[in-house]
Design goal:
By secondary structure, the protein is of the alpha+beta class. The protein is built from 15 helices and 18 strands. Helix 5 crosses helix 8, helix 7 packs parallel to helix 9 and helix 8 packs antiparallel against helix 15. It is globular.
Length: 495
């Protein structure tokens, strides 16, 4: 995981079959929620110069709106707002530019992410806040993003992105040599990636220095980067792939490199025991924070996906791990041999579902396989498609004015796979009023370790969490051999 990744919200578009499979295999981390808002303007210390924010532009305002749309709006929690305001105030006063004012937005997303705009607007998800174990870890994230602003990395990245877009457009329009075009584009991407890796290491170094000068434990950055790496491993598809290998041209360095770099930077300031972590205050502030997905936009419970607002649910096949993203529900079977995508598209009432399946939005559809069917009383249609490495079974259902798509991909098409896919679609049903009313989010609960409590017994108290022992250790900063101590506060997840 990284600290500066954005997401683009996209609509349905024409995709080759392999692209759909890759969308399923990647499992994008994300979530959505209701639109509540918090923007805390942090004032400088009394002795600082008059505060000012960096320049606001129409582009910045558009980007702010895009971020809110992609990350479920803002998350309103007075305790968190107070904690972040106080933390950023200390960091600003310790930075080289105490005259700047930052706006911090808490995003209502279970994703673990944070980023900054050139204007000084900082963003942090509640998923990241829930993962952090103390204020020094949160301060490392905030100071890292402040460092991007201070070093003008975000503005430089925008300029680089415009240059790379121009290179891409020129190469596409002028070159008749596909190999030459591909080579030029690959080199441009590598150049941009290398440039951004240097920025990340620079921001890590600046951020650790700011945190240390503000009185926070500078080793918080290394601890939290380690937690992000462990979180990425838990969220990755259950295969032999390194989760970082799915995006090796990312603009961010591999987390182990950043951990080593952060530790080296921290050693320049102080030993781990000599600076403030503020764990108890931090845990008190995040007690009862929503964990994972917000039910208002649908949520995963094991193999089930439930959407109370839209009033439906379905169950994925055995062995599938589901992930709810801003664009779709993605599922991958253990081992990576099968994948699925569930989403909603606009189909005009005058277009039949069969015509939609054969309209060209997906390549290589076998039109002879298309048939009209009924699923639990809903009009539906299905067809198959074939790619180089994947075979597909697609179902579409009309529910009121919406059309829902189930896109299944398998390395090999078998009778068992077809049966499992059909059972999943057949499990799609309307929720009862009682089920809608009972739907509520998971939350982080801070409790005190009692005599006799163990990692395993506390993990068993967590609700609807897979790999509960590993998740408990991750949430509480415990490695594989770490134990809980009596009277220590710890985080568990409850419903």
């Amino acid at each position: 995981m990284t600290l500066d990744v954005g997401q683009n919200r996209t609509g349905a578009r024409r995709l080759p079959p392999i692209a759909i499979a890759l969308i399923g295999a990647a499992i994008v981390l994300g979530g959505c929620g209701d639109m509540t808002r918090f923007q805390a303007a942090v004032a400088p210390a009394p002795s600082a110069k008059p505060a000012r924010i960096l320049s606001q532009t129409p582009a910045t305002e558009r980007e702010h709106g895009r971020i809110l749309a992609s990350y479920g709006g803002t998350y309103d929690d007075p305790k968190l707002e107070a904690l972040i305001s106080k933390t950023v105030e200390r960091l600003v006063a310790a930075s080289e530019r105490p005259d700047l004012t930052y706006k911090v937005t808490i995003l209502n997303s279970g994703a673990v992410n944070a980023f900054a705009l050139p204007s000084g607007q900082l963003y942090v998800t509640r998923g990241l806040i829930a993962l952090a174990s103390d204020t020094s870890e949160l301060s490392s994230v905030l100071s890292h993003e402040m460092a991007h602003v201070l070093a003008k990395h975000a503005a430089i990245r925008e300029d680089e992105a415009r240059k790379q877009a121009l290179v891409t457009r020129v190469m596409n329009e002028m070159s008749n040599d596909p190999e030459l075009t591909a080579l030029a584009l690959a080199k441009s991407k590598l150049t941009l990636a290398s440039f951004s890796r240097a920025q990340e290491f620079e921001a890590d170094g600046i951020g650790v220095g700011i945190s240390a000068k503000a009185g926070f434990d500078p080793f918080g950055a290394a601890r939290f980067l380690t937690s992000m790496e462990r979180n990425a491993a838990l969220k990755a598809p259950r295969s032999n792939l390194d989760p970082r290998s799915l995006d090796f041209l990312s603009s961010h360095p591999a987390t182990p490199e950043r951990v080593q770099n952060a530790q080296a930077n921290a050693r320049q300031f102080v030993s781990p025991e000599a600076r403030e972590r503020d764990r108890e205050t931090y845990l008190a502030a995040i007690d009862n924070i929503v964990y994972g997905e917000d039910p208002s936009e649908g949520f995963v419970r094991g193999r089930r996906f439930i959407h109370p607002k839209l009033g439906f649910a379905f169950t994925a096949p055995d062995g599938f791990a589901l992930e709810n993203t801003a664009q779709a529900v993605i599922g991958v079977r253990e081992g990576g041999t099968q994948a699925m995508r569930f989403d909603v598209v606009r189909v005009g009432p005058d277009q039949t579902l069969s015509d939609y399946l054969n309209s060209g939005w997906m390549e290589s559809v076998d039109k002879t396989s298309t048939e009209e069917i009924t699923i639990n009383g809903f009009p539906a249609a299905t067809s198959t498609a074939r790619g180089d490495q994947w075979q597909f079974r697609v179902y579409v259902m009309r529910v009121g004015t919406d059309v829902y798509r189930f896109i299944f991909a398998a390395r090999q098409r078998t009778v068992e796979a077809d049966r499992n896919f059909r059972e999943t679609v057949s499990s799609f049903r309307r929720l009862t009023l009682a089920e809608v009313q009972a739907a509520r989010p998971l939350r982080v609960k801070v409790i005190t370790v009692q005599p006799g409590d163990t990692v395993e017994s506390l993990a068993n108290r967590m609700a609807n969490i897979d790999r509960a022992v590993e998740r408990f250790r991750l949430l509480n900063g415990l490695d594989a051999k770490g134990n809980v101590k009596v009277r220590d506060p710890v985080k568990i997840v409850i419903d």
